[in-house]
Write a structure and sequence with these properties.
The chain has 199 residues and is mostly helical. The protein folds into 2 domains: 52 residues; 139 residues, Tetracycline Repressor, domain 2. Helix content is 67%, strand content 0%.
């Protein structure tokens, strides 16, 4: 039978995740149903629950996967601006992950896999801050030679990248961006915002 053959096709977990991401991209996280995903994957309605337990478990897995993908995207970026570019490109390449990752009411925030993935992504973002001239490790919480608290600098940088990515995904800046690459457009925004420096 087709459903039995599909159930044993190899990676049912990833198949269900992929189907869920398609639904989220098209209709949002609220449209997710394990029963519907099972139908799409051609398996019994109990099969997705075997891997994710429930809808919240599925969304937790999507958030964890998203943070891992984000950490990979940010890795080895040469500077903070390029981390912002990669953040924006991640959001446009993985809009369903992006929707879920920043809605902690959708998933189990205390899940160990999610915590590890989120910390890895955060570490990559923090690395861009500590690479700025005059910055010290964010863990110190102290000011620096530039007079900027690393945590505040991090929030400012994240706000710019996340805000632009969100505006882009919600089709609020499509007219301005036009046919330009979103990452290149963000790079010009970052240059504009931070062009002014000490004389």
């Amino acid at each position: 039978m087709t459903s039995r053959r599909t159930y044993h096709h190899g990676d049912l977990r990833q198949s269900v995740l992929s189907a869920a991401l398609d639904v989220i991209a098209a209709e949002g996280p609220g449209a997710l149903s394990l029963r519907d995903l099972a139908r799409r994957a051609g398996v019994s309605h109990a099969a997705p629950a075997h891997h994710f337990k429930d809808r919240t478990g599925l969304l937790t897995a999507i958030a964890a996967q998203g943070y891992d993908l984000l950490a990979d995207a940010l890795a080895e970026a040469p500077d903070l601006r390029e981390r912002g570019v990669r953040y924006v490109r991640f959001a446009t390449a993985h809009p369903a992950h992006f929707q879920v990752m920043f809605q902690p009411d959708l998933y189990r925030a205390d899940d160990p896999e999610l915590i590890a993935a989120r910390e890895r992504a955060s570490a990559e973002l923090r690395a861009g801050i500590t690479a700025l001239p005059g910055q010290t490790a964010p863990a110190t919480g102290t000011g620096t030679g530039t007079g900027t608290d690393p945590r505040t600098a991090g929030i400012a940088a994240w706000s710019l990248a996340h805000g632009f990515a969100t505006l882009l995904l919600t089709h609020n800046v499509g007219g301005a961006v036009g046919d330009r690459d979103a990452g290149d457009y963000f790079r010009s925004l970052a240059d504009l915002m931070f062009r002014a420096g000490p004389a």
